[in-house]
Amino acid sequence: MTCRIGFLLVPRFSALGFLCAAEPLRVANRLAGQNLYEWKVISHDGAAVSASNGMLMAADGALADIASDHSFPLDWLIVCSGFSPLDGLNRKADSVIRRLAGIGVQIGGLDTGAFILARAGLGRDVRMTMHWEALPAFAEAFPCLQASSELFEDFTTIFTCAGGTASIDLMLNRISRLKGAAFARRVSEQFIHTTIRPPAAAQKLPLKSGQASHNRILTRAINMMESVTDRRIAIEELTRTALCSARHLERLFHAHFGWGVSQHHRKIRLARARTMLRETDMAIADIAVACGFESRTNFSRAYNVEFGCSPTQDRIEPDVLKFSAD
């Protein structure tokens, strides 16, 4: 039986995430010698949709029309988004998505699609994942939902993915469920995708600093810093995790980065603050607290030193990427 899929493209969607989801389905059909999958490209109004890279993708129809098209009953609806996902669809679209879920259509989200699923009232009983860069904004916008950093989360009725090339792994997982692991490997090989990654595979490398990534002490310390961004970490906590003395840890940071332990953690917290500043509607004072700064004044001073502008100036740049539950 053919699985019918709708790819709902949201303005500024990730073209890579979408294509990495669609192409495994095409290859699966070719290798199987039959249409295991059929799909349509959908937009909220039936018009062509522009991806974040400027590519214009034609749509086969509008969401409301295809959702009620009895000649193409959907089995899956996959929301493909990227920057500013909640700005690209209105509440009427949320209602259609919710109705489809209610009649048994499996609902998926790629990249930042989890934001749209969450606003539509889905995902209350499952974990949902998204691109790592959007995780802090999702946690702030939907604090009652379970945000995940997995490559993908597949609960059958609700499935989400970090986007990018992780869309291949999600689809291979679903193809394997239908046709078996050996068939999924054949599909994977067509993309020179030599390893089908499990959901728990990391979205990003823990370190991006060359030789520092080979130092286990630094790796342990920085991983802890990246997991604790809502407060300052005492040096004693870090040394217990890193399994070294405070003096040795300071010496390592200065040797590899040119600055000390506390400054490195401050840079990580400021980077998170910048993401939240640009991608959410949170008040600057609230962002300061969420990133471990005692006051807005201290936060603004540190931000200016790090980025050369104030938080307010950074927020009003022309290409702001917003996530908001409202």
UniProtKB/TrEMBL annotation:
SMART domains per the UniProt record, alphabetical: HTH_ARAC (SM00342)
One protein family per Pfam: HTH_18
HTH araC/xylS-type domain mapped to chain residues: 219-317
Membrane-spanning residues: none
Keyword Signal: yes
Keywords for this protein: Signal, Transcription, Transcription regulation
Signal peptide coordinates: 1-21
CDD domains, per database record: GATase1_AraC_ArgR_like
InterPro entries tied to this protein: Class_I_gatase-like, Homeodomain-like_sf, HTH_AraC, INH-QAR
Keyword Transcription regulation: yes
Domain of life from the UniProt record: Bacteria
Any one Gene Ontology molecular-function term assigned to this protein's record: DNA-binding transcription factor activity
Matching PANTHER family: ARAC-FAMILY TRANSCRIPTIONAL REGULATOR, HTH-TYPE TRANSCRIPTIONAL REGULATOR RV1931C
Name this protein carries in UniProt: Helix-turn-helix domain-containing protein
